[in-house]
């Protein structure tokens, strides 16, 4: 395993919930936008999730707890489908386990903790795979190019966009799009990301 992808000693365990449901506009997935006031990952769209606490019974329990705290997702309404292989984020030194779920009985959603979450949204799969909403993004220095989505007044990029792209591919939902369309990350996004 290349050193970049090998977890550092003391890397913290975390989990995210990739929650699919059937919404008013067809199949969708739940995304949050982190508060701009946070010290880490400020203003970034994300799947609900966070660190696995000692009282959590593993990544599934942590992902469901975080989705409840961040977005008001009632755990009893979620059918857990599977856990995906753990991913290592070298930038933040987290080992992240994605948990896929089906929203069998949707609950009302809203930012559960205004100091942490600015917005929650059910984003239709049709919007995510629309080629008009896809682009590659890069740092103005030319580094760190990756996929991105322009949906629901959010620029979804980084870890969340990369994982979402993989999930859409695995589900057979992705449509061909122009990967030569490259945009620099906007200055406001860069300023927030520079906090950590």
Automatic annotation (TrEMBL):
Domain Nudix hydrolase residues, every copy: 10-144
Keyword Metal-binding: yes
Listed InterPro entries: CoAse (IPR045121), NUDIX_hydrolase-like_dom_sf (IPR015797), NUDIX_hydrolase_dom (IPR000086)
Keyword annotations from UniProtKB, A to Z: Hydrolase, Magnesium, Manganese, Metal-binding
SUPFAM superfamilies on file: Nudix (SSF55811)
Molecular function terms, GO-annotated: coenzyme A diphosphatase activity; metal ion binding
Name of the protein this chain belongs to: CoA pyrophosphatase
Natural source organism: Actinomadura darangshiensis
